[in-house]
């Protein structure tokens, strides 16, 4: 029997390991190939222009002793739920304050009003669950999956301000029909950047695809600001990212499906022409190209867009200098917009901003920040002007 | 009963579970800070160095706000598996050294690398890091980072490990052989750990290179170039 030297043994060990790794990697490559192209399901054809008729509105109650609120998000609740719609926002002493937490309320079907707000995410508890610290919380985004679990994406900052943010994915635990106090537990930190996973934030609601998967609009904002999409499967498992634009001053994309594969993204513009920026994809979010800016102004403020079964709605501040007005416009094609509802008019310096929209049970729901004191909401029924 | 999909199944998550991520982060920073403490405290006795390194490793592994991992994770998330591997190897060699309780040249030759890192390896790390850093700021039309989530990137990582192993075999007894051989094994093990548990983030580029390792590569390359320049100057003077 020949004697095997330690070096020869190490070589043999390496090549055996390489074969093992190669085998597993090839299995992954063969199983994880794209099975079906992404697309959305649109349940109604284009019905022309519409008229919005207000059917409700007011303030969503704040948690006790909480002076400031910002950046709300809306999600529909299951049919058997006692509430119609859920809302979440960040609340505390002020934006970026250490006491900011994520607040939650839902619109009770029977009482036709919002339930008392509760806090559902606390940065200290979240840090303990994650195993590392979170300095500040912000920008919650809700999504209900097809198993009726609510998912919550929140921004958590590292050392520094919003530019050191990461996106944390939480999922509802336990009783999914609990109205007053849903429990959320962290599920993942979305891996979005090589640079210590820094500086990706979330703001607008995801677009649900035909297979139950979602694309979540996100944006980078360390120095250069650019929009992107995070892809998640129907269970909420992260699947990858795609960049929407390389322009260095666009953020907070809102994605509007026009057809199954053709989507628009509308973006807040930091500087530049002070108009709402626009990009388009023809292959359901895989490749994007920039389009000329819309003729609608943008005072460096977030916008929201939705395809409401055939008509399109866009909520924005109709000014290039301030956030003291907020309107909802409608469109048949996503390119030419007509203002259909005046949501808020304030005095110079007032702020009505960060809108969120939801289409649920043939009603358009809009929520927005009202002077940073609370979250306001309005509800519209829709009259269709058939062309 | 809940079934966990195998890593190669189509519905397997491509990111690590939160429990795995939390443990992986603590182990990662324990290895890095342990190696750093041994390296920085070189003027102290071997016993003192080992005691300090042990205390730091234990502190990093504890899941509390008092742990350095808590704060390093907040700032930098998890170190790359290759950096963890290099630090682990450094600690292993340090623990294997049989030494007197003093600093000696013998000790430094055992614990530290037999020669400085090959410049071409450092250049690969530097160029790869610059590509990933520029990609972070959307400098290119294509998205390099997102390719790191695909199985093809894992195969590229495996190819890189095999290439390093072949170079180490062919370079015979040159001073850099040990580095190529060590790095080949570290990249291979990192790829396997990434495949099985998706550490550190689900992206294979994060497993191979992190910004700290990239910055270190700059420092080592600068040091190697300065040494080379001084050596050339001395040789030129000697010839004169």
Notable features of this structure?
heterodimer; A: 387 residues; mainly beta; 5-stranded antiparallel β-sheet; B: 240 residues; mainly alpha
In short:
Chain A is mostly beta strands and 387 residues long. Chain A has helices at 6-31, 123-130, and strands at residues 49-60, 68-76, 83-92, 101-108, 113-114, 118-121, 137-144, 150-157, 165-173, 183-189, 200-202, 207-208, 214-220, 226-232, 238-243, 250-257, 263-269, 277-281, 289-291, 304-308, 311-316, 325-331, 338-345, 352-360, 363-370, 374-385.
Structure report:
The complex is a heterodimer of chains A (387) and B (240). Chain A has 2 helices and 26 strands. With 387 residues, chain A is mainly beta. The relative contact order of chain A is 0.15. In chain A, strands 2, 3, 4, 5 and 6 form a 5-stranded antiparallel β-sheet that branches. The mean pLDDT of chain A is 91. Chain B has 2 domains: 17-99, no CATH class; 116-232, no CATH class. Chain B is globular, with a radius of gyration of 20 Å. By secondary structure, chain B is an all-alpha fold. The model of chain B is unreliable at 1-5 and 101-113 (pLDDT under 50). In chain B, 39% of the residues are buried.
Main sheet specs of chain A? 5 strands, antiparallel
Class from helix and strand fractions of chain B: mainly alpha
Which range does the strand content of chain B fall in? under 5%
Mean pLDDT of chain A: 91
Helix content of chain A: under 10%
Number of strands of chain B: 0
Mean pLDDT of chain B: 86
Gap from first CA to last CA of chain A: 90 Å
Number of domains of chain B: 2
What's the helix and strand layout?
The complex is a heterodimer of chains A (387) and B (240).
Chain A (H helix, E strand, L loop, with lengths): L5 H26 L17 E12 L7 E9 L6 E10 L8 E8 L4 E2 L3 E4 L1 H8 L6 E8 L5 E8 L7 E9 L9 E7 L10 E3 L4 E2 L5 E7 L5 E7 L5 E6 L6 E8 L5 E7 L7 E5 L7 E3 L12 E5 L2 E6 L8 E7 L6 E8 L6 E9 L2 E8 L3 E12 L2
Chain B lengths: L17 H23 L5 H16 L6 H9 L4 H16 L8 H7 L7 H18 L7 H4 L3 H20 L6 H21 L6 H5 L2 H29 L1
């Amino acid at each position: 029997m020949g004697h095997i030297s330690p070096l020869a043994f190490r070589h043999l060990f390496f090549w055996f390991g390489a074969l093992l790794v190669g085998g597993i990697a090839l299995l992954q490559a063969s199983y994880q190939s794209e099975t079906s192209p992404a697309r959305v399901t649109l349940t109604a054809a284009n019905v022309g222009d519409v008229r919005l008729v207000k059917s409700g509105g007011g303030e969503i109650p704040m948690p006790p002793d909480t002076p400031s609120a910002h950046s709300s998000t809306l999600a529909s609740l299951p049919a058997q739920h006692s509430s119609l719609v859920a809302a979440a926002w960040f609340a505390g002493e002020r934006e970026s304050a250490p006491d900011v937490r994520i607040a939650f309320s839902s619109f009770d079907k029977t009482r036709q009003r919002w339930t008392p707000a509760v806090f559902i995410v606390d940065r200290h508890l979240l840090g303990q669950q994650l195993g590392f610290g979170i300095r500040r919380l912000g920008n919650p985004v809700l999504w209900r999956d097809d198993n009726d679990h609510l998912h919550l994406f929140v921004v958590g900052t590292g050392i520094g301000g919003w530019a050191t943010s990461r996106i944390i994915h939480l999922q509802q635990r336990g009783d999914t029909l609990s109205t007053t106090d849903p429990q959320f537990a962290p599920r993942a930190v979305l891996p979005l950047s090589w640079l210590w996973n820094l500086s990706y934030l979330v703001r607008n609601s995801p677009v649900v695809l035909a297979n139950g998967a979602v694309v979540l609009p996100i944006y980078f904002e360390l120095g250069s600001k650019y929009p992107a999409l995070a892809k998640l499967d129907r269970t909420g498992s992260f699947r990858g990212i795609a960049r929407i634009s390389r322009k260095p001053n666009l953020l907070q994309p809102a994605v509007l499906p026009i057809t199954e594969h053709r989507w628009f993204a509308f973006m807040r513009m930091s500087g530049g022409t002070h108009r709402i920026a626009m990009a388009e994809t023809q292959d359901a979010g895989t490749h994007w190209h920039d389009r000329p800016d819309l003729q609608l102004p943008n005072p460096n403020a977030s916008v929201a867009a939705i395809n409401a079964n055939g008509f399109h709605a866009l909520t924005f501040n109709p000014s290039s200098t301030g956030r003291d007005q907020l309107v909802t416009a409608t469109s048949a094609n996503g390119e030419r917009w007509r203002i259909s509802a005046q949501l808020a008019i304030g005095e110079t310096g007032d702020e009505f901003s960060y809108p969120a929209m939801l289409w649920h049970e043939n009603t358009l729901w809009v929520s927005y920040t009202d002077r940073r004191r609370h979250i306001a909401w309005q509800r519209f029924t829709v009259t269709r002007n058939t062309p | 009963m809940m079934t966990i999909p195998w890593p190669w199944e189509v519905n397997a998550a491509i990111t690590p579970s939160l429990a795995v991520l939390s443990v992986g982060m603590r182990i990662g920073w324990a290895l890095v800070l342990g190696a750093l403490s041994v390296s920085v405290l070189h003027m102290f006795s071997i016993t003192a160095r080992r005691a300090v390194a042990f205390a730091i490793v234990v502190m990093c592994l504890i899941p509390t706000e008092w742990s350095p991992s808590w704060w390093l994770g907040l700032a930098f998330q998890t170190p790359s598996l290759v950096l963890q591997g290099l630090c682990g190897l450094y600690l292993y060699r340090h623990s294997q050294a049989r030494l007197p309780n003093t600093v000696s040249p013998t000790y430094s030759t055992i614990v530290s690398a037999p020669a400085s890192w090959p410049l071409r390896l450092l250049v690969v790390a530097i160029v790869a890091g610059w590509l990933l850093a520029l990609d972070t700021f959307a400098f290119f039309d294509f998205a390099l980072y997102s390719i790191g989530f695909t199985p093809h990137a894992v195969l590229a990582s495996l190819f890189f490990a095999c290439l390093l192993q072949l170079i180490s075999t062919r370079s015979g007894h040159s001073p850099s052989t040990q580095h190529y051989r060590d790095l080949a094994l570290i990249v291979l093990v990192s790829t396997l750990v990434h495949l099985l548990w998706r550490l550190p983030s689900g992206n294979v580029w994060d497993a191979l290179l992190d910004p700290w390792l990239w910055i270190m590569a700059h420092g080592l390359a600068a040091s190697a170039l300065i040494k080379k320049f001084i050596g050339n100057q001395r040789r030129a003077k000697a010839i004169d």
